Amino acid sequence: MEEKPNERGCSRWMELSHTPYIASDRALPFQPTYEILSLFFPFFFCFFFPASFYSLSYALLSSCLDCLFLFNTGVLVERSARYDQLICS
């Protein structure tokens, strides 16, 4: 059963709710939180998302390069020790 509006054009549910409505189009009034977030969302998305992606990829790349550097250093130390043994023997 559909609820009929009263003399002010509001249904009982709208009167009982705490959400303020504008009578003309029943739109919500100015919501600063929503409007501020909607303004800054493109800014955060365009600047911070790529920055976090690049910093994460840089961290992964640098850790891989560190592993390669340490591995190559260990190989070089082992080879130089072998050469020292060959030269000294």
UniProtKB/TrEMBL annotation:
Alphabetical UniProt keywords: Membrane, Transmembrane, Transmembrane helix
Residues spanning the membrane: 36-53
Transmembrane helix is among the record's keywords: yes
The name this protein goes by in its record: Uncharacterized protein
Organism: Aspergillus parasiticus
